[in-house]
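Final report, Chapter 2: Outcomes

The project's central promise was a pipeline that accepts a single protein chain and returns its three-dimensional structure in a standardized token representation, suitable for archiving and comparison. That pipeline is now operational. To close this chapter, we reproduce one record exactly as it appears in the project archive, with the input sequence first and the structure output second.
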Amino acid sequence: MANRKSAIGEYIAEFLGTMVLILLGCGVVAMTVLFGTGVPGEIVKGGYTNITLGWGIAVIMGIYVAGKVSGAHLNPAVTLSLAVFRGFPWRKVAPYCLAQVAGAFAGAAVVYLEYRPAFLKADPLLEKTAGVFSTFPMFPNTPAAGFWDQVLGTALLLVCIFAIVDEYNIPSTDLWPMTVGLAVVGIGMSFGALHGYAINPARDFGPRLLTVVAGFKNNGLTDGSGVFWVPIVGPLVGGLVGAGIYDFGIRRFLAPAKQSLTIDVRLTEKDGRAAPSSVKESR
């Protein structure tokens, strides 16, 4: 019974942590998209710089919300990579991912309800603002470019996460949520244009489901474009690639630490507890 309660607590934490991630992340995108004055060349509410910084802060806050209970994966690519490379229990992979997608949907729903009047003013037919919630390719006729972009971005994210929380590497202690958030900022600034740097299947698919329910056109899921699969499959593949690169390229050359890294929830735990890591993803 105690283990069951613990697992339920972890799933709730993943839900709430991912919800906070999307509230702050999609919220900042809404600010930059919906409130322009129409002046040519206008940078609305800080523009892309604010988007990258906002998503980084969103990751940090999501980690702080969920970290001590679930490890704050907040990203199916992180959960899958931890199961493959760090012994995270496979029985918890699907529930974690479902909680993350549900939390992302809930966060997107709250953002939509908050800004609904602004959506209806800026885009009365909801034809061009689905990108507030989910990602789309710059080159729709070249899906391989978007897929590679997601693989690369998520691989880089997992390399950074594994390096940051590795007990054999430079100890990050209580700073790891901020350093993971900074990694997401860096990925967004460097690799954000081709497919919106979802780097997190839940961050993209949960809000995309919301756009379908809310009636957005050109949502990437029901409009026939079929672009929804790229930010799902690409990050899952990229996460495994990045985790493998770190383990085989760095971790195996690190000497075991004399003392375990002092973090409440350790990366290498195999007793059913979760591991510290996140994204932002993703966004």
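Archive annotation: The two ends are 34 Å apart (CA to CA).
This record, like all others produced under the grant, will remain available to the consortium after the project formally closes.
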